[in-house]
Structures are given as structure tokens and as C-alpha cells.
Amino acid sequence: MTTFADSHFFKRYRSAILYIGLIFFLILSIPYDPNLFTGSSFEDLVSLENWFGLATYRTSFIAESPFVGSDVRGYYNWAIALALALLLFWAFGRKIRQTFQADDDRVFYWLRVLLRYRLALAITFIGLVKIIPIQLPEPTISELHTEYGDFLLWKLYYLTNGIATAGYLPVIGALEIVGGLFLLNRRTAIIGSGLLIAVLLNVVIVNYVYEIGEQVYSSFLLLLAVVIFSYDWPRFYQLLIKKTATIPDGFWPVYGRSVAGIRPYLQALFLLLIAVFSVQAYLSWKNSDYPFPDEKGLEGAAGVYDVKDFVWKGDTIPYSLSDTLRWKDVVFEKWNTLSIRGNRSVKVDSLKPRIAFNRERNYEYLGNGGREFFGYTSKQGTDKRTTTIKLTGKVSKGHTFAFIVERPDKRTVLLDGVNQLGDSLHVRLEKVNKKYLLHEGRRKPIRIY
Fold first, then answer.
1. Which domain of life does this protein belong to (predicted)?
2. I need a surface site. Which of 160, 322, 371, 372 has the fewest CB within 10 A?
């Protein structure tokens, strides 16, 4: 069995450290979050969003910031959990030891079991949304027509990986899934934890560098992997670093009759949960436009349009690099989103990107400071030549337009209407025959293997 031979302090207080660690991680494994599940119907409760939220929950005595950036208040929850663990052990430590009558090796074993399954559940779900392009989709037309410096750092990272063609993202997702599945077996836990340490160290660094906002949670997953790996580290060090004879682990867990009876069923249930989520994630991605809205846009209008004429309150405003009223270009997405690029400053939505099937799908405009995004509803006119659309700002909800749309030909869109203040506006848009090299591809594919 593993021998703890580090320091006199650890030898003396080994038992206390293990019990405190067990209580600490138990506290951080309780899904204490009143907003963990969203939706009121049964269909909402068993949705992909809620399953993913349950698998990746974090105990939040102090709420973490919902915005991207360098806020690390979530680490306060670690401090609170550690203080509670110390307090509980100080108050009930002797009674706990007398009740369980377990030696240090058994305590450490059950601690590792808790951490193995806690980490395996989270990391396999995270890996699945990378293999199935749910978390990091390809860029939209609006994003392709946004200047590089108008994106927040995290959005640049997401877009860069979303267009990667060398299999980077699926490989990372596969490594996370393989590492998580290795954790389900005690014999392969060392392989899984070692693999995940390498992957999660990269994830933690990326979160800090690109200010994705998941610094605390990614650090927590890395901590779980390190604790699991630490059990076999002495033998690992002896064998691979010192290259000396190494005694195998002699500890063999002994289960009671009740634990031994339900253990196979719990393992099967765990694997079934992963399988169900995999199928649900694939079907949700295949049968929807996630993470973009499912509502269809104007038929045949998708593309980027140059603003040829711009008449504001009866005055024609020529093309300008400084006028804050005039639009530069307009993008119609395939779904019911329209984005406008102009010279006015745009409020950036800096919320963290989330898996959000039940809530508003906001990924397309998060982290974009170069365009103003509008959702719209449309209604066919009685003469079938015109369409009435109402635009509502996705970030600035009070910014609205009501337009009558005419399309005299396939390339031209005429907008006549008013804004929320009643100011009249006439715009003539002409579609740009734009070819994207990203979609055209290379004459010869790049090979990196």
C-alpha cells in the first residue's frame, strides 16, 4: 500500500489531514446553487442544459461573477469550505473516527472514489460538448465582418478554435472523455488523472490568459486530478524518476455486503447517464441551430449588405467614417438576427458563454463590440411584395426599429420605417457577393502529421 513518507508534520497529522480533506471535498461536492435547474416543465428539467449544469455544478456560498474577466471571487468558496471542514473536524473529529473506525488508507480510498466520480462526470460532459460542436461553433457572417480588435479576448479564443481544421478541438474533447472514463476504474485512475492534469493545466492557463471567466472552476477540476494522482505519485517517482525497484500498491478495498451489492449497479447507472447525455447532445445539435436561434430569418436574405442610401429624418447622409448615425454594412443571418456595423460605440455584453438551450441563445453577440445585434419578427404583407419586420436590440433592449421591407431584386433590400423615438429612416441595401476563403478552402490541405 502507499506509504506517506514526506515530512514529520504529515506523518504526525496524516489522519487529521485526510479527514479534513474528505470533509472539504464533500462540502464542495454538494450542489448548493438555487439556480442550478431552470425551467418549470418536465421537458425543461431533463433538458441538455440542466444535465450539463448538474454535471459541472460548483458549490457557491459566494456567487461567482456572471461576467468574463479576471474576477476570482469563487476562490472564497474554497476558503469557506476549508474553514467549515476545520470547524467540523475540531468539533466532531473524535466522534467521526470512532463511528467509522477506518484507517488512513481506507479514508484516502473513499476520498479518491468521491473525487474520481466527481471529476469523471464533469470532464466527460465537457469533452462531449467539444467533440459535438456545441460549445465552440464556427463563426457567423456577423463575426466574419467584425474587426479583430472589437472582440473580447475570450471570443477570439473561441473563434480561433471554432475554425481549426486540424482536429484540435475534437482531440482535446476526446482526451477529456478518455481521461474521465479511465477514472471509473481504480486500476486505471492513475492514467486518467495524469492525462487530465496535462489537459486541465492548459485549460487553467487559457482561462487566465483569455479571461474566459472559468478560472476558479477549471482550477477546481485540476485540484481533483492532482489529489487523485498524488496517491500513486511516490511509486511513480520511484519508477520513472529515480528508476529504482518499486513495490506495487498492496491496498485492496474490502466492501460490506450492501456496498458490494449496489456497486455494479451504480457504475452501470453512471455509464448510462453519460450515454444518454451523449445521444441527447448529438440530437440537440443535429436538430437545431444551437447555439444560434432556431427561428428562421427572411428567406434568401442571408449575407452581408453594403448601405448604399441612408436617409435619416428626410436628410440623406453620405458614406462617412465618423458620422454616428449612418450605417456601414448590415448582415442578415440565416436565422432571425440582423446586425449593423456603424461608427457609434456599441455596448458589449460580457456575460460568460454558457450552454443555454432553455434560455435566450446569446452566444452570437457575446463579446462582440463591433456590431449591434437585433432579433426580429416578420409578417408577410397583404400584397406579398412587402414584409413588415420589427427589430429589437439584443443587448440594448430599448433600441428598436419597425420597417417595411421591399426586395425589388435578389440583391437589393429596401427598408422604410421608424425607430423607437419615431424618427423616420429609409435605407437601401445592396448585397455583396462575398466569397470567404475560410469556406472556399485551400488548394491543398495542410498536413501536420
1. Bacteria
2. 322
Count the Cβ atoms, other than its own, within 10 Å of residue 260. 11
Question: What confidence tens digit (pLDDT) does each residue in 389-428 have?
Answer: 999 999 988 999 999 999 998 899 999 999 999 999 999 9
Same structural domain for residues 233 and 319?
no
The residues that bridge with 393 in the sheet, in sequence order, are: 374
Work out the end-to-end distance of the chain between its first and last CA atoms, rounded to an integer number of angstroms: 42
Which residue in the block uniquely carries the three cell numbers 418536465? 42
In 361-399 the beta strands, taken as DSSP E runs, fall at 372-380, 386-393
pLDDT tens digits along 292-337: 988 999 988 999 999 999 999 999 999 988 888 999 999 999 999 9
Neighbouring C-beta atoms of residue 154, cutoff 10 Å: 23
| Same-domain pairing of 312 and 168 | no
Q: Are residues 266 and 318 in the same domain?
A: no
Q: What is the DSSP letter of 347?
A: -
Q: Is the peptide bond before 408 cis (omega within 30 degrees of 0)?
A: no
437 within domain boundaries: no
Q: How many domains does the chain have?
A: 2
Which residues touch 57 (CB under 8 Å, ≥6 apart)? 31, 33, 36
Segment (H or E) for 329? strand 327-332
- pTM for this entry: 0.88
CB 235 within 8 A of CB 249: yes
CB atoms under 10 Å from CB of 382, counted, come to: 6
The secondary structure of 158-206, three-state, reads: HHHHHCCCCCHHHHHHHHHHHHHHHCCCHHHHHHHHHHHHHHHHHHHHH
CB 208 within 8 A of CB 154: no
Residue 372 shares a structural domain with residue 266: no
- Enter the DSSP assignment of 260: H
pLDDT digits (tens, 9 = 90+) for 80-89: 999 999 999 8
Please choose, from the candidates 405, 406, 346, 338, the residue with its C-alpha nearest in 3D space to the C-alpha of residue 376.
Answer: 338
Q: What is the Rg, in whole angstroms, of the alpha carbon atoms belonging to the chain?
A: 28
Write out the H or E segment, with its range, that includes residue 315: strand 315-316
Same domain, 65 and 165: yes
124 and 240: one domain?
yes
SS3 per-residue string spanning 101-133? CCCHHHHHHHHHHHHHHHHHHHHHHHHHHHHCC
Domain presence at residue 440: no
